[in-house]
Amino acid sequence: MNRAPPPVAGTVVRHPAPGSAALLAPALAAAVLAVLAVLLFAGAARAQLAPDSTGYAEPPPEEPEGADYEVESADSLAEGAIELGMGASGRVGARPRQTRRVRFNDRTLGGSVREGEGDPLAGGSIETGVLAGRAGVGRLAPRWGRGLLLGAAAEPWSAGASDRGAGALFRGRAGRGAWYRLGEGGALETLYGRFAKRDLTGGRARAGPFGFGALADRAGQAQASLSFCRGRTEHELALDREGRWRAEAALERSAGALTLSARVRGGAAGLRSLAEPLRSGPARALATELRDDVPWGRVRAQAALWRFAPGRGGARAALEVRRRFNPRESVAVGFEERHGTPRESGRIPGFRQGAWGEWRGEVAGLALALRHEVLGAERLGRAAVRTVTAAQAGLEGPAGSGLRITHCVYRVRSGESLYLIETASDRVILRAVSGTGRRTRVEVRAPGAGGHINAALEIPGVAGAPASEATRPRWTLDWTRRARSR
Amino acid sequence: MRAARIRRLAALAPVALAAVIALAARAAAQDFTSATLPGPASSANGFIESGLPPRHAGPAFDASYARWFGLPELETRAVACGAGWRLARVAAGFSQTGEPDLGWSAAGLACGVARTDGGAGLRAVARRDRSIEPGSAAAARLDARAGAEVGWGAWLEAARGLRLWATVPQSWSAGVAPPLDRPLEIGGEFERDGLILWLTRSAPSGGAEADHGAGVALRSGSLAAWALVRDRPLRGGVGLVASARRLFVAAAVESHPELGETVRLALGLGGAAR
User: Fold this and answer.
1) Is residue B223 less than 8 Å (CB to CB) from chain A?
2) Domain spanning B2-270 has what CATH number?
């Protein structure tokens, strides 16, 4: 028995007689085009069956290229809840890495502690209500205004940082120290911490839409920020003691389902954030994004132009169209062209053009996703520097159990980096790979010991390839339990 | 009205032709090759070969024969049986390839779950050389005379008549390398009114580029005929599947410009011939 997709709301559906040629022809064309789209564009470098966003996954600029990058997921914890977690990971034949974590959230006290040898996310943070405000110590990832001094976006074309500030998708780490906030939404904020091997003291005050902040280090270097934020309009002016300045204005306007946002930045190339110098971003930038949340899906177009310094800049244009056939099935195709470099230092990749296509479908208890990405050094993705094809199947079992298998085949030209996204229970890992290879990741989720157990086995390599450190399977075992503290 | 329909169908011909030309994969089948169409398995051999479970439950038995590239010393003979109960599917089989002094034997097992609109399965195949010379490395070490591979496959009915699948026959392997490197293959087929069109894409293997296949099948009653083209190098093949009650017979011939013809035959009981 074939399954007929339900009609999309707002469309008129005609029901031709079964077997009529009128039904056959357009259906045939649609099928051929859909299969062509999946087969031709299934799989570039996002390997990548990740949350939908345009472009290819890359670590932030302060991280070295070609190395694994881990970032903490920012899932929230309900008030009065406590979460315990224990994990172990490693390669077959090697000593495992153990991790432990505790998170808790009470009305007045909240925090988290992670420990584990070699765990890049090890550390802790705690916050509590004090002196009519809130204070905390530990990990710092604040965002002031547009992020010119604190909390800049990782990529020149992004409007906001995904790992900085309250409400970010990920809990990034700009520094470590202590902070105190007073008033509604943090009207007065002070912080002291170590950022980029430098001790910094800072404070910020907000009055209505205006905000004023200043940062200073022990050597007497200081920077100030004046910002304005009302609704979806946000501006910031930052300057240092030498009189160097940068300014950024960001606007967003909506008309129905259509949203247009634009951002312009200008100023001196010499002004670098004291707190996050490697994330200072370009001195000049112009970026715009158009997003249309149409009833059948979503269209996103982005264009950006930037310059760090004379001879070092770049441009990017991207388009992604996601077509939802029903809540359980969608097709997405995307295109991206880049010039220059998105990083302030290092090699300049130059011209890159690529495309990706992705199909996701689901029936009761079973999900399948196919993706293909290609990024080339010539037009139409020719002279491919990164090619990735990925397939993922998921099975839902009883009591919240599940099995997910992801397989990807990649080819990365020498000198290029590719990052495969791995989602663990408490973190997201961008796994750097290079050369030609394939990888299977098997993830099992099951209830156990009063919580949930997540296990993953990652099998790299090529059939018949000689065994080596790189081809040894990698494994992860994690147990998480959430409970009410009262 | 009818003329307009014919014109519309005719307009699709260049698209189909372009698809065939642009997407024309290596003969990725191996020990449990089947002469039936690609995609969700219609035979127990097919299930073991691809990891794609059949949509229909019920007992099935089939035997297949393949002569690779016209070489009488390179023949594969396989038998497999399958069964299903509710959502569960399982198949097991045995295969022999080549002559006693050079060939190998393989045992395969596949299990999975399937509904009418989707399924996923795991496959495992273990191989062993048929002839072990006394005193050789193969006689001394198991991993020098035997090998194993584990893979998976999943398919889903994306829309009425449109099925998409992904199969990874060799996610993990150990011991003696498999005779053929079989990377990820994704494919799709569209079926309407007895007409079946399919496209496949195999990911690059080793230093080679990705390769593609396209095919068309026509089904009328208990008879189905199909043709396919593949690229790298460009080549093609034809096949025929006939069924009567629960019995089916399938034959396929695929020509290779340099290596010659590959002939495959299958005889089965139960399952669903396609």
Assistant:
1) no
2) 2.40.160.40
